[in-house]
Amino acid sequence: MSGYLFSRLLQTLVTLFVMSVLVFGGLHMVGNPVDVLLSPTATPAERLEVIRSFGLDQPVWVQYGIFLRNALSGDLGNSFVYNQPALHLILQRMPATLELAAAALVMALALGLPLGIYAGLRPNGGLAKAIMAFSILGFSLPTFWIGLVMIMVFAVQLGWLPSSGRGDTVDVFGVPLSLFTLDGLAHIALPAFNLALFKISLVIRITRAGVLETLQLDFVRFARAKGLPEARIVLVHVLKNTLIPLITVIGLELGSLIAFAVVTETIFAWPGMGKLIIDSIAVLDRPVILAYLMITVVMFSVINLAVDILYSIVDPRVRLEGN
Amino acid sequence: MKRVASAAILAACATLAPSLVSAQALTIGLAASTTSMDPQFYVVGPNSAMARNIFDGLVNQDDKQQIQPALAVSWRVIDDTTWEFSLREGVTFHDGSAFTAEDVVASLNRVPMASRNSPSSFMPYVKAITSVAAVDPLTVRITTAEPTPLLPNDLSRIAMLPAEDAEVTTEEMNAGKGVIGTGPFKFVSWVPDSEVKVARNDAYWAGPAAWEDVTFKIFKNNSARVAAMLSGDVDMIESIPTADTRRLKTSDDLRVVSVAGNRVMYLHMDQGREVSPFATGPDGKNPLRDERVRRALSLSLNREAIVDRIMDGQGVPAGQLVPEGYFGYDPSIAVDPYDPAKAKELLAEAGYPDGFKLTFHASNDRYPNDSRVAQAIGQFFSRIGIDTSVETLPASVYFSRASNLEFSFIMGGAAVETGEASGVLGPLLETYGDSAGRGNRGRYSNPEFDATLQQARQTLDDDARRELLQKATRIAMTDLGVIPVFYLANTWALENGLSYPGRSDGYTLAYEVRPE
């Protein structure tokens, strides 16, 4: 196990390195942040001063070297427009995004699993067909539009829920979370459901397919022949086998929930990391973009690792080996 | 898709119940977020607008950007390079300390420190100043290197802080420490990209604001901002998307405020190079160097139609670079009429009866509807026989390439930050050089224009300076160094029962919001 973890750590480091080279080079080619940020009336002296203070006067490889050296000591650079450490900016907004993603994931599983199992058990029933139709809608309607319609219906017309923003927060171990206040829950409901909609559909379809497939397998027939209660067959034996593809997909989707909740965060003015990255790209705030993508890489690596470990728990045939 | 959704939201507006506005708390939806609480760190609209709620300058800009007394009640020019400002008596900072001449000295001296690591610092506004001295507690004497008639305009940009806070860094202010001014509101809290809270300063020198607590919430997405307004989450929003303005105007529960803005949308043409990459006549040369061609392009534009159809009425056709009411506006300059026949004649006269090839570059995420405006302009050019193609790019790519002169014909938007004409004439039209014409991406150059503008800059007498600025404008608009298209409008939506005069600089200042 430790050998396995070690090799995974090594892989992550290599990925991080490759990623940083690509992003650094890419950002360098896109444009010069000074042209976007500096007022057009600035004199060359003022321009040079800004370029120098951002370290943009150095050749690219020197800039990269400096970045690498600082990164190894945990400093990913200062944001150009906030004049604050990029890492700090991202971590400051992280709790909001994580809690939104977590809420969306819980919704996806809580709704998707039962509906998917039902649709798998009674594939020809009217309700199952309705569930499948819903999942197609969930897949195909754009998040952007659904979000706006939800705001229109629940916030503007019915007035049940607030249209945007994050509600009151309470500090849990120093991290401000809104999941534990009524106002916070009211605020998170719409954006979380908006974000979860696609995932609910995904979970429904994967679960249904898994249940349908597993039901045909010999061990289910044996279990039935043995006289096990139907509930136990479905909830233990069938479900366990269905979970393996589900974990893979959900693992990957969780990463994208966190890293790219941009659309939902924008529509609902949710103060998370997604909005930060969009703004940073617009003004070419290189340190923030770079730091954000590095954190994304780390996050995906951690999630993938967690997925692999979960596999070994759900399916005893899977063994984690280092090579 | 966006349009469908916002249309749906607006339809819902009919059923919106009128809600009462509490006279104590006000919530405002802003379109852009403040990146720092240090008012002297970064020259960018959202930061300056937020700072005006908390801080004052020696002088302030009013809703038409004209200079008004603020912390200084009067000023006089002692000689060409010495100014004396008399300060307002009895003004206190939010921490209770008295505002005196020492605070002015300290605030002006803090600018270089706050400009460290700034992407666009306040240094240009203080670079003319060679020394600041406190004559007595209520008198400040400022010496400049050269005659600087725009000193009050420059000073209107510099926030006054208590002298004790002269050493407070931008980082500390971002953390909420030392955000202390003399303005109508006291700083309470800031969650970056989310909200800013302020509370009334009961001792404000111009009288207390109508609101005890004000919350500014950030909604960068247009539809989200409109939805927040319609659902009653906010009492007021700024910059209504143009597509929604007309319908919001017809709502009984809201009112819309629209005023002419200080940003002119203009076309910049390569006039510096014989051969230009994206403008080629049949002879391979750059046709844009010919004044007649530039006039033809201007005459081919139906500015009324662009404002009316593309901008949904949210703009005013422009024939020069500053709107009416601004210092240096010349009423004798008319907006070019829509005259495609005349335009074709001029083209033929210039030797291009069959037009020429032109690629027009514009940004697509910087100004309201910029890519649609560019498409429309391209079509007007095609109508007079110019083989035009339009390419739009994200601002982050576009501006770098435009500054590197990679394009031949571009569209830009210039705001008159100083409130008078030299603030746009200089950057856009003065001959490109180390200290002038830094935004002159067309490399227009006319020595007579340069001389007139330079003379205006050193003329302290207001009337004489106004005339010089008007003359410089006439020269540039005769040559068409740039083609002005229209001024953007600034818009706000408010709940019934509130009023806002609107500002040409687009700032949303809670102090000026009044209950009726």
Automatic annotation (TrEMBL), chain A:
The keyword Membrane applies. GO terms for biological process: transmembrane transport. Residues 94-311 form the ABC transmembrane type-1 domain. It is a multi-pass membrane protein. The chain crosses the membrane at residues 12-31, 100-121, 133-157, 177-198, 242-269, 289-311. It is found in: Cell membrane. CDD domains: TM_PBP2. Keywords: Cell membrane, Membrane, Transmembrane, Transmembrane helix, Transport. Belongs to the binding-protein-dependent transport system permease family. This is Peptide/nickel transport system permease protein. It comes from Rhodovulum visakhapatnamense.
From TrEMBL, chain B:
It comes from Rhodovulum visakhapatnamense. SUPFAM superfamilies: Periplasmic binding protein-like II (SSF53850). This is Peptide/nickel transport system substrate-binding protein. Pfam families: SBP_bac_5. GO terms for molecular function: peptide transmembrane transporter activity. Keywords: Signal, Transport. InterPro entries: Peptide/Ni-bd, SBP_5, SBP_5_dom. Residues 1-23 form the signal peptide.
